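Narrative summary of target 7.
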Amino acid sequence: MSIFSHIWSFAGYLVPFIFVLGLVVFFHEFGHYLVGRWCGVKVDAFSMGIGPEIFAYTTKNGERWRIAALPLGGYVKFHGDANATSTTPDAAVASMSKAERDVTFGGQSVAKRAAIVVAGPLANFALAIVIFAGIFYTYGRHIIVPRVIAVQENSAAAVAGFKAGDLIVAVNGKEIESFSDMQRIVSTHADVAVVFKVQRETGVQDLTATPRMRELKGPFGRFRIGVLGVEASNQGANVYEKSYGVIDSTRLAVDETIFVLERTAAYIGGLFLGNESVDQLSGPIGTAAVAGEMAKISFGALLNLAAILSISIGILNLLPVPMLDGGHLMYYAYEAIRGRALSERLQEYGFRLGLSLVICLMVFATYNDVARFGPVMLNWITSLWI
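Modeled conformation, tokenized:
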């Protein structure tokens, strides 16, 4: 393989990665920016990426919009901030005039500061809804009718009394449209009793089954799912394509966003409880690998990944870890309850602890990436010289 082929192959992963991460980071930071401006805060800089500046433009009102060398994050620097974490030393605040202090982030009420901070994650969730809605509106859905054609022996379905020919119309009281809708619910209810409403020739009947836990190994780590043990036909009249209008697409997008949000939150909670495998964590290398593969499938698949990543980043930023948005909200909650802000010294210690935790998480996630993709990367690099 020539050096140009290698460069083209590398770009096939790098470009989709930058596109996906850039889109998610931009909307996150734009959420902070927009609400900050609505609250009367002056913005000094809006940065896409971190590290050395490679391009910048200064607007008429003094805002510096910049693109940095490393596309692994971004920030909004409000007026008066000592750094990108929106902290300002008390001495600096005291030296400001009232007019200048009124346009700083720190000069706002607790409610306004909390609104500005939470706007970033909320923008991530809104972006996911818009992307999902666009995908449903453009591509519709591939529907497999949830009619059982076979029941696996000794499975949870067999124990519950499922029969070939059963049409599953609802799961836990929620009507379903496709076999994948049923699978999605079952996969998240391992070892939990689930009530299925099925249509038979003799009428509608409720069946209670407990999907069994099964651990699978995929290209990005081990994961656990619930399995019912039924099969559906993916041929003939049991399969069709369904299109949606704007309203239905938006409704489906909200449902999809809530589902991904719940599953991501459940996974994070499972990590702390020891119920989930840590080898599913991925860093930049893993994200780039997935982005490249999704781009090979279609632009819609790449956008779908961006929506999922946007939700994940939104949730991670809401964790009560100093330095993250959730850490800021934790400080503001303390300030609202006690009537005074946490001391500058304690906040600084908190941010150092938060930074250490974030760095450790990134190192561990990158270690997982290297463990999964290291051999492939080594072969790719070695082939440059063969």
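The mean pLDDT is 83.
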